[in-house]
Amino acid sequence: REKETGIVTRSANTPRYLEFDKSGEMVSDDGRLMNYCKPPEFYIDWSEEAVAFFAANNGLRNKHRYFQPGITYSVPGVYAPTFRVGCGQVFGQKGATIFCELLPQFDLLGQLCSRKCRFLIKNFLSHGVDATDSVIEQTPLLINPIEGLPPLTEQIVTHLRSDPLYDYALNEPLEIDRLVYAAYGLNEADIREVQDRYARAD
Q1: SS3 of residue 35 by DSSP
Q2: With the CA atoms of 126, 84, 87 and 28 taken in that order, what torsion angle do they form, in degrees rounded to the nearest 10?
Q3: Which of 43, 19, 22, 44 is nearest to 92 (CA)?
Q4: Which of 41, 153, 181, 194 is geometrically suited to a Cys-Cys bond with 119, CB 3.0 to 4.6 A?
Q5: Which pTM was predicted?
Q6: Residues 145/104, Cβ–Cβ less than 8 Å
Q7: What pLDDT digit, counting tens, does each position of 39-94 carry?
């Protein structure tokens, strides 16, 4: 019930704040793209009073998708899109979130964070600095799960949840990219083009 109508606050000490997905930072202070997972940046008051106010002022959009697992992504900016596991609670207008019933969450996240996917988005689908919904909708993905991909993606998320400074770039993503290249049938020349373009862009 509290998911629908808000938390009953019996005293000033009653916890009332939930994690809130919105765009936020895409690059860490030390220059790493914030893919896969990042610490919560925003919270929202989910008390009965606040939820009633949101409802009365058209502030609850797509609420049928609240409290579901999804993948959130950053829309604006030179480094967009970056993809991360959603908080699974509430998201705002700027908290673009993907809900997919065709692929396991960690398979989808691994594909989206791969260099191959970034290459396609930046070179063929997005013709500006933003990665809008229409860009994400056109991004080609394999519907059949890629063997070995979900455990690697989940491992990165687990590391980042325990240590947000975990430098994953030279670890699991190398194998993730190899699996994605093989699944899509890229040859050596294709892979070299993706890798070279990725190095120049990032």
Answers
A1: coil
A2: -100
A3: 22
A4: 194
A5: 0.91
A6: yes
A7: 999 999 999 999 999 999 988 888 999 999 999 998 888 888 999 999 999 998 77
